[in-house]
Amino acid sequence: MKNSNQHTIRWGIIGVGNVTEVKSGPAFYKVPNSKLVAVMRRDAKKAADYAKRHHIPKWYSDATELINDPEVDAIYIATPPDSHAHYAIEAMSAGKPVYVEKPMARHYNECQEMLEAAKQTQQPLWVAYYRRTLPAFLKVKELVETGIIGKPLMVNVKLYKEAAERNQKPEDMHWHVFPEIAGAGHFFDLASHQLDYLDFVFGKITEVKATALNRAGLYPAEDTVNGTWIHKSGVVGNGSWCFVVDKNSTEDYIQIIGEEGEISLPCFSHGKMEVKTIEGTEQLEFENPEHISQNLVEQVVNELLGKGKCVSTGESAAHTSWVLDEMVKSYYKSK
Q1: pLDDT value at position 332?
Q2: Which of 37, 92, 271, 309 is 20 to 30 A (C-alpha) from 99?
Q3: What pLDDT shows up at residue 170?
Q4: Residue 112: is it exposed, middle or buried by C-beta count within 10 angstroms (0-12/13-18/19+)?
Q5: Is 279 exposed, middle or buried (0-12, 13-18, 19+ CB in 10 A)?
Q6: What is the pLDDT at residue 2?
Q7: Torsion angle defined by CA atoms of residues 44, 45, 47 and 49, in that order, rounded to the nearest 10 degrees
Q8: How confident is the model at residue 7, as a pLDDT?
């Protein structure tokens, strides 16, 4: 993709919505050897406003124009999942490497189409599972691998959230609860981070059994999921997710249990990590980068420049999508 004399990756973003304001967008012009040169949003006024506020030289209201801009080296796709496959395939076909938001696509079959395009075009493809690069999550992986809790046996995941949709009309609800856009519900948006991270720590999930239901009737997608799984390493997983609980019932944790102790930490809230061993209990605190995707974006840029490998690939993310599909298939088969 790059001239050997070129030392800066020039990025274009397709879809500059809320996720790109702080979480990801600024990383593309703050990471060393990276520049954000163009942005696209279908609403031209919003595209122009984003470009002005972030000091980006070009904006577009047409994705194809941005993809074919000769001054854009690589593409970040930050649209809802229903257009991930389309834009990724178009960009790779134009000879541009792609970094796409998670989940990788609506369903595993769309992920396979993207992987096939990457193979045919010989363009790299990465996915924004940035927990693989955050300090607390890297520390957990290190602790597990150094054996501080002995042989890891099982992992428990719990995520219960209050429903913003309880007081909303359908037309005011976020696209996350409409399966034709998101693939499923909040489960795909949030559990994808947890399950992808656990794959990173314990190896691929090889077996899944789960039940998905809509208990509150607020929107079309599932709102409650309960599942069990097995990792290639033999670690057994158990998870429960509910997105319609009372505010006093909210929960957020990943608990890893070993033969000689356990590690627990929140996945989305900024709480402390707790490590219990035969020596006692220790609490650890970590600070995330201001732009939470920045460490992963830096890995992508470095790989493009021939300086290492990014830990979140199209292949690993596609497997996470397979796991997500398996988790909710009982609900969608009944539709």
Answers
A1: 95
A2: 271
A3: 94
A4: middle
A5: exposed
A6: 47
A7: 160
A8: 87
Phi/psi of residue 260, nearest 5 degrees: -130, 20
Domains of the chain: 9-128+293-308 (3.40.50.720), 135-287 (3.30.360.10)
List per-block mean pLDDT (blocks of 10 residues) for the chain, which spans 335 residues: 67 96 96 98 97 97 98 98 98 98 98 98 98 98 98 98 96 97 98 98 98 98 98 98 98 98 95 95 95 98 97 98 98 84
Instruction: Find, among 249, 284, 280, the residue nearest to 266 by Cα.
Output: 284
Tell me the residue type at 20: T
| Cα–Cα distance, 227 to 205 (Å, whole number) | 12
Q: Please give the single-letter amino acid code of residue 224.
A: T
Closest CA to 12 of 67, 82, 87: 67
pLDDT tens track for 54-104: 999 999 999 999 999 999 999 999 999 999 999 999 999 999 999 999 999
